[in-house]
Specification:
With 172 residues, this protein is mainly α. 79% of the residues lie in helices and 0% in strands. It has one domain. The chain has five helices and no strands. It starts with a helix and ends in a 15-residue tail after the last helix.
Length: 172
Amino acid sequence: MAYDYLSGILEIANVFISLFVLIYAWSFLRQTADVKDRKPWVFLFVAAIVFFLFEVVGVLDVFNISKVPGLRSFLESAFIALILFVFIFQYDLILKSDLILITRKIAREEKLEKDEQEISKHLGMSPATAVRQSLEPEENRAVSESLQKQGKKRATKKGKRPAKKRSPKKRQ
């Protein structure tokens, strides 16, 4: 008796949860109507519909209102297949997105190299040398010290310790 009561309550709770998921998926699809990469969300919406039907059939089955043999198994299989499609499409979108980012980064680096070459041809020196020469002596010294500090920090990050300055030993 207690098992049947608990089973019925859980089935009804699952129907409400699946209805909430269905409404949330529908509102998301309405808000993103102009987004081109929303195909996984369309499959998730269809999966939410199948999940809702699966839970409604479960409630009807638990309360002995209607029994359709094999319907729950079919709906469960359809739900799992749709979720699988979502993962496949999302994986494809992630790969395409990564390729686009990598391509942009390579293009940006190539453009930077090309710009540096043009600057060095125009000035007759490297861009770093041109910047150093354009600075006043005090600024140049500050930049050099900053670069040296960064070099020490990088050396310690790589596991190397910068050489310590040794003071002359005092004689006693």
